[in-house]
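Protein: Protein-glutamine gamma-glutamyltransferase 2
Species: Eudyptes filholi
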Amino acid sequence: FADLVLETWDLQCERNGREHRTAEMGCQQLVVRRGQPFTITLHFSGRGYEEGVDKLTFNVETGPCPVETSGTRSHFAVTDFPEESGWSAVVQQQDGGSLSISLCSPPNARVGRYSLTLETSTGYQGTSCHIGDFILLFNAWHPEDTVFLRDEDERCEYVLSQQGLIYQGTRDYITSTPWNFGQFEDDILSICLKLLDTNPKFLRDQNRDCSRRNDPVYIGRVVSAMVNCNDEDWGVLAGRWDNHYEDGMSPMAWIGSVDILKRWKKFGCQPVKYGQCWVFAAVACTVMRCLGIPSRVVTNYNSAHDTNGNLVIDRYLNETGQEDRRSRDMIWNFHCWVESWMARPDLAPGYDGWQALDPTPQEKSEGVFCCGPAPVRAIKEGDLQLKYDIPFIFAEVNADVVYWVVQHDGSQKKSTHSSVVGKNISTKSVGRDSREDITHTYKYPEGSEKEREVFAKAEHKKSSLREEDEGLHLKIKLSEGANNGCDFNIFAVINNNTDTDRVCRLMLCARTASYNGTVGPQCGMKDLLNVTLAPRAEKSVPLCVLYEKYGESLTQDNLIKVVALLTEYQTGDVVVAIRDVYIQNPEIKIRILGEPMQKRKLVAEISLVNPLAVPLNNCMFVVEGAGLTDGQRIKELEEPVEPKAEAKFRLDFVPHQAGLRKLMVDFESDKLTGVKGYRNVIIAPQPK
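Structure follows.
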């Protein structure tokens, strides 16, 4: 027989991409999911392949030093009876000189970039040919993959959806901000692989790191550490919370991960400035979805940052309601992290499913700023000893808050206020733009028998304060929404739940604030020395907060923290109430003109009314949307926008992908920043 001569070959990127749900990553490269067969075609010249005469053997390798023993190299022949456990190659069909072969990786293969080589031999003669590279991802569709997710709608949301909503605002006023995850956009997959190849564990021991890339737990831990740069590694984002972002981008300005990841690569893996918790979480979510691990961003309201691990957050106020900064323990208005879906074969049964991963740099874990993966089930059950970092997240959702009022003589009085930590834990619903409350997955109902059992196991003594029943009760209410540029009223509502007259002093103080709990200057204040309450009576005391007072010092978080302090003269008892008021930005209006169809021009009309009494300067719209705009589109307005006038522009774009898409808009100016809007657009497929 003459030698078998390989002339050309086809990796069938388009067909395999469709079957492996990776087509949106483009048809220039082969991207497949583990455990699922993919087809390649070989064309031989002279004569075709003959079974029994010719031997075809494939070699796949990943990482810088591939070896069979660590699963980064595999050598396997074309056979009708492949082994169960490893890589396999089977002839699908033969047509003259052309041969279709189905290749398949095991469902526990290492993910990453592979090189594929074919060796052909007839008798003793053999030749070897490198036929290309492919990228292997986790496979949530394969029952034996550790990231297997049963429900198709959930797989579409948590692996395939490139856009979503992240919840922010306050516990009493939950807002959603759109986010472009963009995990299938150009170059994002190669940047995610680069991120794995710049992580310190890889640089320390490349072979060991690559051999562990079959394990989503390991990958999750690496990604959690690499999204922040606090370890002097090549992390993606630098965090900053002090409202000085002039030498970078304000964390509030981002509307997607694509821009951030591309900047990181473009500037030689230098950290991108700046991120805060939702930015860290969203970028980690993009990387995990890109690699094929089902992931979602979750938000915890009134999130405790317990630095000393005693599950108690002590806050100190002076008699005028101002915070005395003595404690590093903080209560964040909200805090975002990621949940990723995976099995935990490294733990006892029962902890598979959602795992919390927190890439925001807060505390070190095994010497590195990363957190998780922590099984959400273990957090709910109070199993603090399991891997990884469960005590920290348990505190975020369960710690007790004690307010101490420091009198002018230095003595401290404990307030009868139990602030509530870990509320309204939220994530975007599957397939809809609504909020799903997942608090019940993190904790049992408050006051339940199960909650008591979990706290006993976690050695957490919850202060049992039920202040509604007796004594004086204090609450802060808001009459209607507070809009940026407008004055608004807040009310301290006092109830006397006793049978005698009570005389008190009421202090009401409003200050601008950041979402991590730090406060700025005071923007409204009332001190009533003589409030008399009849038995069983209710009194409402208003405080008007003026725009001219808060406008200058309002941070980009748009928050005002209101503290009310009620001191009863007779007993000296102090009651504290705290409420965070979210100042609403104006709405961005988006109109779509034309019939939305793939590869056909569309026009978006984008506008916003200036709600302030002063002109807006340096106005800029930033627009992006996976599958809609090619990257980011930026429009700078030449003229200032006068009070009550409209900032508007028209954007032409050509959608390149069909299906449901979100067009996302961010508006920036000197006085109004980080205003977000989005519009869902359904793009019809191009007629064949």
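Remarks: The chain is about 15% helix and 40% strand.
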